[in-house]
Amino acid sequence: MSGISPELDPSDVGLDQARLDCIGRHFDQYVRDRRIPGFLAVVTRGGKVAHVVHRGCRDLENGAPVEADTRFRIYSMTKPITSVAAMICYEEGLIALDDPLSKFIPEFAETRVFAGGSSFQPVTVPILEPIKLWHLMTHTGGLTYGWMYSHPVDAMYRSAGFEWDAPRDLDLAGCCSRLAEIPLRCQPGTEWNYSMATDVLGRVVEVATGQSLDRFLAERVLGPLGMKETGFYVEGEGAEKLAVLYMPDLVTGRATRAAHMSQAALHRPSAPLGGSGLVSTAADYHRFTQMLLRHGELDGVRVLGARTVAYMTRNHLPGGADLAQFASPSGEQQPGLGFGLGFSVVIDPAALKVTCSAGEYAWGGAASTEFWVDPAEELTVLFFTQLLPSSTYPIRRELKQLVYSAIVD
Fold first, then answer.
1. What is the pLDDT of residues 75-104, one digit of tens each?
2. What are the structural domain ranges in the chain?
C-alpha cells in the first residue's frame, strides 16, 4: 500500500510552514475532545505535495492510528469521479447533456412529480420537462435522498429502502427502476436539491457503455490514473487499513462507533453506487485532483480533454444563480456558491464569506471528508476523517481559513 508524504519545502511554493502547522494544532483539539476520531490533511501547490498531517485513530477502540495509507469511505467524493466517467462517454459521443434520462432508463418516462399530500397519500402531477442528463449532473432533476428528512418524497425514498444505502437485493438497474416509481420532489430544472442523481448517472454510464460502472471506472478512470486503492469495497490488507465509521453521541457529542454501517465497505455491493460508494486513500484521491488541476491529464495519460474539464467546473445553474437563489428551502443555502457538472463552483468569494478564489471547485463526503481544487492558486487540498454526518462541525470552512492563511507569496 502507498502513503503520501511531502515532496518539497512549503516555502518553495509560497506556503509558510508555521502557518500550515496550524492545521494540525487546530484539528488536534477535535481529536482530544473526541469530536472526531482522527484526521489526515494534504495541501499541494503547483502539483507538488507541500504538507501532510495525520493525527488520532482510524479505530479508537483498538488504538489503531490514522496513517498516510489509511483507507476512508469517501461517500459523495465518489460523485466527481462518476461525473468524469460520464463526461468520457460525452466526449466519445455516447451521450449528450440534453439527452432525456428515459433514453437510457425508460422507466423515468413515466415518473410523476409530487404536488401535495403526504408520503402515504401523495398527490402527483405529470412531469412538464423530461429529466435530462445535465439535470442529473447538476442535481436539478427533482430527485432527493432518504436521509434528508425534510420532505414527504424523502420519506418515500426511505420506505423504498434508500436512506444511507440501497436495497441489498437490487443491482444498479433495479435501484433505478425502483427510484423511477417514486415521484420527483420538484419539476426538473426548477431547483437544486442534493440527491441520488449521480447514482442514476452511474446507471446511464452502464447502459451507454455496456459495462458495469465499477468495471468502467477501473478501466477508464481509476486504472489510468494509478488509483489502485480505490474501489467499491475493500478486502485483505485493505480491510485492515480501513478507518472505522463514527457518529456523534446525541448527549456527549463524542465520536461513537457506527458498527452497523462500518461493515458495508467490507463486502462487494450488489449495486455500485456512483454517488456514494467508493473507498479511497489520500494518495489515490490526490492523483484524481492533480488530473483535474492539469486539465484532464496526469503523467502522460489524458482522461478528459482540457475544454471538458473547464466546462464541467463552471457554474451551470440556470441564469448564473448561486445556491442561495436556486437550492431547495432545505438545501445548501450558500450565497456565492454555484454548481457545475459534478462539482460545487465558487462564483463570488465575498458572498461566500470565506477566503477562497473565484473558479475554485470542490465537493465533500458524508463522513466529513473534503477536497477542493483552486486553479488560480494551483492549489489542491484534501481532508479525511470518518464522522457521519458532515454537517456536525464546520470543519470545511475552518480548513479553508487555515490553508489560505498559509499562502504568503
1. 999 999 999 999 999 999 999 999 999 999
2. 10-82+214-405, 97-210
